[in-house]
Automatic annotation (TrEMBL):
Enzyme class: oxidoreductase
Gene (UniProt): xdhB
SUPFAM superfamilies, alphabetized: CO dehydrogenase molybdoprotein N-domain-like (SSF54665), Molybdenum cofactor-binding domain (SSF56003)
UniProt name for this protein: Xanthine dehydrogenase molybdopterin binding subunit
Molecular function, one GO term: xanthine dehydrogenase activity
Oxidoreductase found in the keyword field: yes
Length: 778
């Protein structure tokens, strides 16, 4: 996007709904953006390293730290027995995730002890000198192994049901059963996990953490140190990527740093290398979807019965809400007249999986698109026609109730899909591709157009709240702080735009400050695509309070009605006079007007009863659609992404440039999940794809050769969100499902589209080649 796309940073008819650059963009490209490892190191700083298990499941018989403790430069070695408070970092109160394993290890790479030394290199080398004796126990690392061994569930499962799925399945004109496997994904943020702790007076400790959830870090540090939350201050200016991987996984590093800092009374930093980071921290859950479908000869769905089994790892972490959200999105954009869905969150002897962009939604939605694909091949129709046939209807159609009994009242998916179908010239291109495949033996093409309907809100109702703190100083400059964290997604910029727009001042007048638990308490994680919704509205509420005070002051001082006090670009009109904003604020200060406000917002309308499987867990839905064309080589399984067209709904965009960047980035990240990114554990439970050499994220050269991204400019959120915008963090991730579906069509062409190829994810070249070979035998 060239410079001319962006508005000048001086005020032009308000600061919302314009393409202002990311506040740190120039710092990112010049390397001047400060991350935790860039902060000048305090005097006497020590470094920490993890001592990791080399067994997947075993009892710890004995540990010998003599060579570790005597290694030159080592200051302290500590285990779970040295934790002054609770040896637990679980995010949900389940107490199933020890900070340091004491008597038993449950995955290869689990932290057992920590080494504190003069340098990071010394700490890492010393940690390898430990001698640990184990008694091995049976282990399983995948879903099939967990089921075969009767593995316990890490949390109670959830069931969603409506209608009579079993009865209508038996009565349906046609039925089929199937299974789909969906791989996990490593977050692979550019900045790995890192934490630095500095001890203070009495029980105080300050922590700098690369985390999406400062308040949780605060709570965890308090628990492990046995001190109250008011003694712990957590600071986050920015992260070099998060994607959900820093919602809970930063807990252990911050807690270890804090324990060592208080014990040694010196600043401590923990920064694992990439291998350790990938081995010891959780990933996207992989799933196995077992399903039965009832439908008619037209391809209209009558009944769905599906079980979503997930590899959760050794502890619960966020697996409950992740598998819940998978079920919430197991309908994708489709109405199921009769439905029965069940989650199966399985314990495995692998690292505990965690949040990842989409939070289970992509897995649920991908399963639904397989349902559509199965039906399309069974009835011999274009999958897009089956999609459109089964879309949710408009209010009054009788086709608006989700499996969790929420009504879809804002449905625009048909319009989004039809507009993209037309602008991408889908029908003509598909016909041309079918002709191309008929005439070419080894090179085949595929095309697919898939929809997105994604629910916005935390499904835990209490998390749908936010606070903001706004100060106006005497010179008219504005200080902004809120509970959201910046991980590159532009949240700070958007919330600053809200504030600048409220006061009608240049955005340069708004100072964006680091997120800290010392200013805004009890914050929710920056997750669930809700950062702008929640924190934008909290900042707006703070601005409202300040403006009410300022208007009342001006009305009294100049003896005019409140309606005649108007905020204009960089000035305030009071009756017939106009006063520059800084001068106006100065006068308000001398009149003793309070120029600070704490804003607050809680999402209305939402409620959820998990046990009953009923409620309104989402405030609204975000929609989108993508059309992707691919080319595969049937001799090698290699492929190219030739073209992608996207139309995505963000309501009235707060910042179109940032939102388009989010859509583009989410699509490419989703494409990586579904194609090149493969997690693999060996028979000893060791993660073998633990470095860039073995784990392949998409490169810039892997993006679609033609990449057209548009926002649905006509859309406006029907709900009263900030600026009538919609969330953009997670929904576009699932646009990448069009890539897998296009690859599937190309593979199906080998058998003349007679059967569904059952192409599982990730569709690596090897997996594509195996699917091609299966098609040759049809």
């Amino acid at each position: 996007m060239d410079k001319s796309t962006f508005e000048d940073r001086k005020l032009i008819n308000g600061q919302m709904h314009v393409s202002l650059r990311h506040d740190s963009a120039h710092k990112h490209v010049t390397g001047s953006a400060d991350y935790i490892d860039d902060i000048p190191e305090p005097a006497d700083l020590l470094h920490g390293a993890l001592g990791l298990s080399d067994r997947a499941h075993a009892e710890i018989v004995s540990m010998d730290f003599s060579e570790v403790a005597t290694y030159p430069g080592v200051v302290w070695v500590f285990t779970g027995k040295d934790i002054p408070g609770v040896n637990d970092t679980s995010s949900n109160g389940s107490h199933d995730e020890p900070l340091l394993a004491e008597t038993k290890v449950e995955f290869h790479g689990q932290p057992i002890f920590a080494v504190i030394a003069e340098t990071r290199e010394i700490a890492r080398r010393a940690a390898r000198k430990v001698k640990i004796e184990y008694r091995d126990l049976p282990h399983w690392s995948d879903i099939d192994g967990a089921i075969a061994n009767g593995s316990p569930l890490v949390v109670s499962p959830m069931t969603l049901q409506r209608g009579e799925a079993k009865t209508e399945m038996a009565n349906a004109p046609r039925r089929l059963k199937g299974q789909m496997r969906i791989g996990g994904q490593e977050h692979f943020y550019l900045e790995g996990h890192i934490a630095m702790a500095i001890p203070g007076e009495d029980d105080e400790v300050a922590v700098w953490s690369s985390t999406q959830h400062p308040s949780e870090i605060q709570h965890i540090v308090g628990h492990v140190l046995n001190i109250p939350s008011n003694a712990v201050t957590v600071n986050v200016r920015r992260m070099g990527g998060g994607f959900g991987g820093k919602e809970t996984q930063g807990n252990q590093f911050a807690a270890l740093a804090a324990v060592a800092a208080k014990k040694l009374k010196r600043a401590i930093k923990f920064r694992p290398d990439r291998d350790e980071d990938m081995s010891a921290t959780g990933k996207r859950h992989d799933f196995r979807v077992d399903y039965e479908l009832g439908f008619d000869d037209e391809g209209r769905i009558h009944a769905v019965d599906a079980t979503y089994s997930a590899r959760c790892g050794f502890s619960s972490d966020l697996s409950g809400p992740v598998t819940d959200r998978a079920l919430f999105h197991a309908d994708s954009s489709y109405f199921y007249p009769h439905v029965h869905l069940t989650s199966q969150p399985l314990k495995t002897h692998t690292v505990s999986n965690t949040a990842f962009r989409g939070f289970g939604g992509p897995q649920g939605m991908l399963g639904a698109e397989r349902f559509i694909e199965e039906i399309a091949y069974a009835v011999g129709k274009d999958p897009l026609d089956i999609r459109k046939l089964n879309f949710y209807g408009q209010p009054g159609s009788g086709r608006t109730t989700t499996p969790y009994h929420q009504e879809v009242e804002d449905n625009i998916i048909a319009r989004v899909v039809e507009e993209l179908e037309d602008s991408a010239d889908y029908r003509a291109r598909r016909n041309a591709i079918v002709a191309f495949n008929r005439d070419n033996r080894y090179i085949r093409k595929g095309i697919a157009l898939t929809p997105v309907k994604f629910g916005i809100s935390f499904t835990m109702t209490a998390f749908n709240q936010a606070g903001a703190l706004v100060h106006i100083y005497q010179d008219g400059s504005i200080h902004l702080n809120h509970g959201g964290t910046e991980m590159g997604q532009g949240l700070y910029t958007k919330v600053a735009q809200v504030l600048a727009d409220s006061f009608q001042v240049d955005i340069d007048r708004v100072k964006i400050t680091a997120t800290t638990t010392g200013k805004v308490p009890n914050t929710s994680a920056t997750a669930a695509s809700s950062g702008s919704d929640l924190n934008g509205m909290a900042a707006y509420d703070a601005a409202r309070q300040l403006k009410e005070r300022l208007v009342a002051f001006a009305a009294e001082k100049w003896d005019v009605p409140a309606s005649e006090v108007v905020f204009l670009p960089n000035r305030v009109r009071v009756g017939e006079i106009e006063i520059p904003f800084p001068d106006f604020i100065k006068q308000a200060y001398f009149a003793r007007v309070q120029l600070s406000a704490a804003g607050f917002y809680k999402t209305p309308k939402i409620h959820w009863d998990r046990k009953a499987g009923r409620g309104t867990p989402f405030y609204y839905f975000a929609y989108g659609a993508a059309c992707t064309e691919v080319t595969i080589d049937t001799l090698t399984g290699e492929y190219l992404i030739d073209r992608t067209d996207i139309l995505h709904d963000v309501g009235r965009s707060l910042n179109p440039a940032i939102d388009i960047g989010q859509v583009e980035g989410a699509f490419v990240q989703g494409m990586g999940w579904l194609t090149t990114e493969e997690l693999w554990w060996d028979d000893k439970g060791r993660l073998r794809t633990h470095a860039p050499s073995t784990y392949k994220i998409p490169l810039a050269s892997d993006r679609p050769k033609i990449f057209n991204v548009r926002l649905a400019e006509w859309s406006e959120n029907a709900e009263a969100t900030i600026g009538r915008s919609k969330a953009v963090g997670e929904p576009p991730f699932m646009l990448a499902i069009s890539v897998l579906e296009a690859l599937s069509m190309a593979v199906a062409s080998v058998a003349n589209y007679r059967v569904c190829p059952h192409l599982d994810a990730p569709a690596t070249p090897e997996r594509v080649l195996m699917a091609v070979e299966r098609m040759k035998r049809v």
